[in-house]
Design goal:
Blueprint: E1 2-6, H1 10-14, H2 16-28, E2 32-33, H3 50-67, E3 71-73, H4 76-91, H5 93-103, E4 116-118, H6 119-127, H7 129-135, E5 144-147, H8 157-160, H9 170-176, E6 181-182, H10 201-217, E7 222-225, H11 228-238, H12 241-247, E8 253-255, H13 256-263, H14 278-285
Parallel strand pairs: 1-2, 1-3, 3-4, 5-6, 5-7, 7-8
Helix pairs in contact: 2-13, 3-4, 3-5, 4-5, 6-7, 10-12
Length: 287
């Protein structure tokens, strides 16, 4: 299988370990990555300049259409944004013609039919749970994990179409294949608070703290995310004294590519897992 990898803007700067770990996972399952230089998905300017947002997404889709391979996102915000832009361009002819007029300056044109997937889609739908299970050489034995879906992979459902937006199960199944036990927690579908960080940090921190407390009360040892923005927010929370006062000790978080990589026998340092948590995971993998 060959894909086009869309890391987004934040991954290379704020969370390079997400791309590194994801590439290692894809290599383990013989997924080849076709090189292609892409631009921002347009999400940061969506509510500032709608046409600029749409042009940014359309340019990526045009470039991907030339290659003919699925466009796989590491960031759920990018995933939702590209799928939303694709829906708008398919359904609104006048808008599509206007954007194509802008793309024409580079010899590009929006083409329908580009598959836009998230990294979890590739694992769940294309590789499959059974194939992943066969590759797991060092499963977790006692780890309890709270799956954090993130907003942009579930809503709006008619755009993203990843899973049931009210009762999703795919992420928990992907966690279970590592040997870890997914916990049932009431705030699993709530926002992590990251979108509010630059607008109202007090509310942002409160939302994150609520999730951490709820996950700990449900028995979780770790939060598991598959979204760059959410992981950045959880990492911020570990340093925030307000949350520490509420939760006693902040709940650590891990990206799913890192979690899966450990069970496939990859080195923690190669997966971007910091030295603080490496001994803990070694103990869980080798009880």
């Amino acid at each position: 299988m060959r894909i086009l990898l869309f890391p987004g803007c934040k991954v290379p700067y704020y969370a390079p370990y997400n791309e590194v770990a994801s590439r290692l996972i894809l290599k383990e399952f013989n997924v080849e990555i076709e090189p292609l230089e892409l631009n921002c998905c347009g999400y940061p300017i969506r509510f500032l300049d709608f046409k600029a947002f749409l042009f940014s997404s359309a340019r990526n889709l045009s470039l991907a259409g030339r290659k003919g391979f699925p466009l796989v996102c590491l960031c759920k915000c990018c995933y939702g944004t590209l799928r939303y832009a694709d829906l708008l361009l398919r359904e609104h002819r006048e808008l599509r013609e206007e954007i194509n007029g802008m793309l024409q300056q580079e010899g590009l044109r929006y083409v329908e039919g580009v598959e836009i997937k998230h990294f979890l889609n590739i694992l769940y739908e294309d590789i499959g749970l059974e194939a992943i299970q066969k590759k797991v050489t060092n499963p977790f034995q006692t780890l309890k994990v709270a799956a954090h879906y993130g907003c942009h992979i579930l809503r709006p459902h008619d755009v993203v179409q990843f899973d049931d937006p009210v009762k999703p199960t795919k992420f928990e199944k992907l966690i279970a294949v590592t040997g870890a036990k997914p916990v049932d927690w009431s705030l699993r579908l709530q926002c992590c608070g990251e979108p509010l960080w630059d607008k109202n940090q007090e509310v942002s921190v409160r939302l994150t703290g609520n999730k951490m407390v709820n996950a700990k009360q449900a028995g979780a040892d770790y939060l598991c995310a598959a979204c760059t923005h959410c992981q950045i927010q959880f990492e911020r929370a570990r340093k925030d004294f307000t949350i520490r006062d509420r939760a006693g000790e902040t709940l650590p978080s891990l990206l799913y590519p890192q979690m899966l990589g450990l069970c496939l026998g990859l080195e923690p340092s190669d997966l971007g897992i910091d030295e603080e948590h490496q001994p803990h995971f070694n103990a869980l993998l080798n009880p």
